[in-house]
Amino acid sequence: MLTIKSACWICLLPVWHTSVGICYWCEQKLRLDKPRCLNCALPSESVCDSCSQCQKTPSLWHGILTAADYLPPLSKLLHQFKFSSQTILAPTLSRLILLNYLRYRRAYQWPKPDCFLAVPLHPKRLRQRGFNQSELLAQPLARWLSCRYWPDAIRCTKVTVNQHTLDKAGRQSNLEQVYEATADLRGYHIALVDDVVTTGATAKAIAYQLQQRQVASIQIWCLCRTL
């Protein structure tokens, strides 16, 4: 006899395994149903490798993979995860990223990385929060895909103002000389994991450091993309 182990974090209907966390019907509602630019993950007229805006301003990475747009109900779950210490949500949220990667791999031949990195927190910020949300998202992805997870390959060298409190220009200047690549990453195909990509300032700052280490390629994997 089957027993109900958990309830969907969104609709509260039963799910059969605690690691799933979100039921099939809610997963379908979260799916990205509009064509996307594979480089910036923003909606476009059709699926393309590089939209008109990306062609004007080439990026330092080879594509952004996101699970969903930064909208309710997922944005509320992310807020609970990040600011209310609901770390139990990590496998559920990572699974959403994995499902979209598998879809992209089938539909667009999205390449598999060989190493996962997480956007780092400054040690002071890490002590305050108690965990790095990007790290908790990256670890299961690396394990499920049998890839290396390299926790100390990038470090944050100074405390900055929280990015979500700044405008686009402020986000860019806020991250100048903040990150440092500390490992020999030459030749690695990297997936950099973050919780949310907004302007891409964080991804750009870290991708620049990774390029200095002569990585083979960089992908940005995130849970949500702001519109």
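The above is record 1. Record 2 follows with the same two-line structure.
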Amino acid sequence: MTGTEHIARAAELLSRQWTTRVISEIDHNGPLPRRMAARTFTDLPRTGIHYALPTLRHRGLLTVAEHDGRTCYLLTEAGEGLGDLYEALARWSRTHHHPGTATDFVTRVEAGLELLKDRRVLTALTADQPAAPPDTAGTEPDTLTQANLAEPTGERTWRLTQAGQDLRGPYAELAAWTAAHAHLIDAVPPRRSALGTRLPQPPRTTTAFARTTTRRTT
């Protein structure tokens, strides 16, 4: 697997259902007592909680250990390493209003990961000059132009916009995390979308990270 393929695979894995929500909660507020999980993730269905927590343990992002006399979910070293990536993605998304102006931390992070799953975007970020997007008439819009990451400078020449150039920062964070934790990425089978096992998404609320009033401002 090439470096770009590995990075795209990491972005796909990290953008899977509820990963950002759970990791961010514990990163923001510290160890999560097992008995408080349902009360903490009130925006997730109970089936989602029972799915997400053991799944993230299996993927090597969470662990269970005693903390202050209680059995808690804690971030592993790999989970803690996502903090800088999340901050970089959220900052980029907020600065460049992607996917919009009225979004929360989790939405901004997930929107950035969606871009970094796109191999064409990754190729553009690592090239001196991105190749011209293909003719998209009658097809899905090209991510580079849809997200305002690249713009034409001539008939067949393109360049990264400021948003595209700035996305290289989160890309570098993702690349560094991927290199450090490639074994975790390789251990998780690729998603098989045809199985149709994806659980329903919870509604977005403004009560995320409610265990404490101390929150990040990103």
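The longest strand covers residues 62-67.
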